[in-house]
DNA sequence: ATCCAGGTTATGT
DNA sequence: ACATAACATGGA
């Protein structure tokens, strides 16, 4: 068994019949991560576990202080799938240290000490954030649920319900946009979503090429996709390509940035330049903190 | 009823 | 290069 991996990582593993507990972690709060708007393929269950999907796999997970508790998976999958997804090799203490010079971020970090940026796949992140434009998180989640049930792959029955994965590109490419709109309530994003699948299947878009591109080139390349403008491109870069300096500016981030910093009347482009200059290589993490903070403190934004 | 939601696109100056 | 309307849909 691959116990070496966890020993090297400096954590303790406790295997019970139904659960695997990873102990000795820091800076991780599953609830904060799930509710932070970076990922929408999850359900909270009655026992406090979050049923999450990634790469066609599924597990139930929750965190308590320095522990992660897993169900519906095994040690090998944790090592290969969930550990990297949760980016547990990255020291978020160092990232927080680098951003502590800013009093607003300091306050935001005190409210969300367990925040992390998940390492999603390019396909997952792209699909989710093409869905996100002028949408809301609640409806997006509902659409993904319906999309998975209607077009996804059956994964099994968990917590008393049949579970399905998000359809992959091959399936997505074959969906009739009108059907997608009716079944999943995606509105006018129907065509962009299906086109994304087609662009992959037909080779108009290469994830390999995207991954090999530097930030500037990737930013432009992503915007060639239907339904991808500057904001969604930055989201895809941050969440799907692990570009931590990406700084997506949505309505919330725009409001909190113009409220906290001298940016009144500035364009998104100007705010972006300011943010990258001020927050540097971890601007994306700063953005995630500010997004959470803005939504939790609507009174502080004009 | 009007406005808003993790915006983008097409069109006009 | 910047400003504005249209775009689906559900909740406040």
Architecture blueprint of SSEs:
Blueprint: H1 3-8, E1 12-15, E2 20-23, H2 30-34, E3 42-44, E4 50-54, E5 57-64, E6 67-71, H3 75-85, H4 92-99, H5 103-111, H6 122-131, H7 137-151, E7 154-158, E8 161-164, H8 169-174, H9 177-184, H10 190-201, H11 207-212, H12 215-222, H13 230-240, H14 251-260, H15 268-279, H16 283-296
Helix pairs in contact: 5-16, 6-13, 9-10, 12-13, 14-16
This protein binds a DNA duplex (13 and 12 nucleotides) through residues 37-38, 129, 132-140, 142, 181, 185-190, 192, 226-232, 235, 248-253, 267, 291.
Q: Could you explain the architecture of this structure?
A:
The chain has 302 residues and is an alpha+beta fold. Helix content is 50%, strand content 13%. The chain is built from 16 helices and 8 strands. Strands 1-2-6-5-4-3 form a 6-stranded antiparallel beta sheet. A two-stranded antiparallel sheet has the order 7-8. A hairpin with a 2-residue loop joins strand 4 and strand 5. Helix 9 packs across helix 10. The longest helix has 15 residues.
Please write the string of helix (H) and strand (E) elements.
HEEHEEEEHHHHHEEHHHHHHHHH
Low-confidence residue ranges: none
Looking across the biggest beta sheet, what order are the strands in? 1-2-6-5-4-3
Quaternary organisation of the protein chains: single chain
The major beta sheet can be summarized as: 6 strands, antiparallel
**Overall pLDDT score:** 97
- Summed up, the helix count is 16
Task: Indicate the percent of residues in helices.
Answer: 40-55%
């Amino acid at each position: 068994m691959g116990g070496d991996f966890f020993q090297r990582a400096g954590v303790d593993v406790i295997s019970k019949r139904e659960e695997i507990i990873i102990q000795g972690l820091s800076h991780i709060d599953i609830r904060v991560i799930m509710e932070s708007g970076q990922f929408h393929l999850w359900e909270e269950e009655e026992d406090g576990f979050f049923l999450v999907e990634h790469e066609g796999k599924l597990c139930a997970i929750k965190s308590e202080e320095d522990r992660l508790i897993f169900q519906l998976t095994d040690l090998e999958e944790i090592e290969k799938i969930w550990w990297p997804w949760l980016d547990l090799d990255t020291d978020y203490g160092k990232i927080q240290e680098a951003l502590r010079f800013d009093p607003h971020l300091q306050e935001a970090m005190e409210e969300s000490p367990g925040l992390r940026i998940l390492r999603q796949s390019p396909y997952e992140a792209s699909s989710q954030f093409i869905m996100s434009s002028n949408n809301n998180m609640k409806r997006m989640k509902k659409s993904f649920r319906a999309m998975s049930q209607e077009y996804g792959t059956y994964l099994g029955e968990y917590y008393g319900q049949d579970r399905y994965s998000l359809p992959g590109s091959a399936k997505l490419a074959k969906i009739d946009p009108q059907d997608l709109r009716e079944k999943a309530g995606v509105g006018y994003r129907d065509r962009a979503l299906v086109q994304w699948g087609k662009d992959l299947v037909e080779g108009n878009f290469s994830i390999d090429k995207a991954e090999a591109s530097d930030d500037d080139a990737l930013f432009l390349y992503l915007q060639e996709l239907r339904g991808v403008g500057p904001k969604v491109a930055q989201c895809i870069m941050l969440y799907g390509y692990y570009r931590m300096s990406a700084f997506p500016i949505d309505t919330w981030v725009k409001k909190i940035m113009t409220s906290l910093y001298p940016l009144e009347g500035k364009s998104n482009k100007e705010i972006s330049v300011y943010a990258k200059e001020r927050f540097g290589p971890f601007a994306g993490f700063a953005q995630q903190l500010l997004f959470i903070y803005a939504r939790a403190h609507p009174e502080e934004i004009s």
